[in-house]
Amino acid sequence: MAKKNIKRQKRALKSRSKIQLSENNRLTVFRSNAHIYAQVSTCDGSNIIASASTTEGSLKSANNGNTEAASKVGKLIAERALEKGIEKVAFDRSGYKFHGRVKALAEAAREAGLSF
């Protein structure tokens, strides 16, 4: 694995251990060059409660790797979490910087009703 990816995984492990102590459900983000994925899971990560990504038919477009697509995913994941009765989550950015697509997803989820 690349050194950059190993460092990101170490940062993610550190934040996930703190989230697990808070015992909140967590909103996890994964981004690739082409797509962005989000899922709400239990604090220990054993069960997935809701998920959304740009690979779904309703969100698929010509360019799935931009901030507009990320904000659509953020809005959709918030709607699905609220349907399941989840209003408060801990934001797990998976070691990525809170910038660009990750920030757009988080802000859209907050605007749609999730609190973190």
What does this structure look like?
Helices cover 41% and strands 20% of the residues. The protein is globular, with a radius of gyration of 13 Å. It has a four-stranded mixed β-sheet with strand order 3-2-1-4, sandwiched between helices. It has helices at residues 3-22, 67-83, 101-111; strands at residues 25-31, 36-41, 48-53, 89-92. The chain has a single domain, classed as Nucleotidyltransferase, domain 5 (2-Layer Sandwich). It contains three helices and four strands, in the order αβββαβα. α2 packs parallel to α3 (101-111). With 116 residues, it is α+β, with helices and mostly antiparallel strands. The longest helix is centred in the first third of the chain and has 20 residues, at 3-22. β2 and β3 form a beta hairpin.
Determine the mean pLDDT: 92
Helical proportion? 40-55%
Under CATH, the topology can be stated as Nucleotidyltransferase, domain 5
Q: How many β-strands, per DSSP?
A: 4
Distance between the termini: 32 Å
Domain unit count: 1
CATH classification, class level: Alpha Beta
Strand order of the largest sheet: 3-2-1-4
Largest sheet: 4 strands, mixed
What form results from the Cα inertia axes? globular
